[in-house]
Write a structure and sequence with these properties.
mainly alpha, 6% strand, 322 residues, globular
Length: 322
Amino acid sequence: MKTCHICGTENFETNNYCVHCGNRITKINICPCCGEINDDMAKFCKYCSFQLNPIDIESFDDLFSEYNTQLLADYNLTPQMYVDILNSVFEKLKYTKVKGKTIKEKILNLCGVFARCYPKCREGELGHNFGNVIFYDERLDDSSQISALLHELAHCILFNLISSLLCEIFNVNHSPFIDSFVWFFLSNDDMLLLNEYCASTVSGRFVPYGFQDYGSFKAELKRREIDEQSLEKIIKLSINFSNEICSRLDNYIDEALREDIKFQFKLDQKAENSNAFDFEILSEFDFNDKNKLLLEYLLMYFVAARLPEFREELCDCLQLFE
């Protein structure tokens, strides 16, 4: 399959134009090293062996090589590079019109751009996700489903952002091995706190005031010991991510749709939430400091994930992604 670099749609190998957005997807695979023309799908130049296209990661040994570890350690993430990666995550939305007969259907339609959505949920949860898959409880009233969907959407966007960043750093294609590490990264220790705080903040941006819910974050916080300084650092970094996500979703969850969401909450006669978080931090990191800190965290977890004791956890993730 050929992936359109504009909207992300998968096309047949024989397609010269994207079936979704019409973008030309035929390549002229010219080697930047020797200038010779290669086959469209060639990954290495047949004349000089220079790498032409991103390669596929086909094992955890490939992923956690010394070479990739050094690439991550030495990587200089400039503001423009980060913005380009972030914008690429939202590229599909440019070709999507948020629509639906009900408010919930509109939010579900929006979530469907980033993830496959299924009406199934574990007992005691409003929703959960795994990478690019969202599960939600359709038995709940619409306003609760809207809140849960927005929460899980934020998880998916952050997941896609980190996965795309690593693919850029390693110059590789997306793969289940990359995704398994990203899930490991966002599901453990401090990063799980960051992940939950970010999702709660994004969801809270688009629901009526008084219905913000940090219950999942508070539950994770109770399970671990963390000093106030470390917690503040995690929350500030999370605010960076949530602001980036919200600023782009604002273009699609516009004022009219937010008013509709407010109306749905009134219609469902929802009581205000008591799960707000009282450790309020409004500041965020400087853009360069944020990028530096993100790379430090990625390297720390990447080095840890290379250890034999974490391979079983990664393999369990791999089975689900495959």
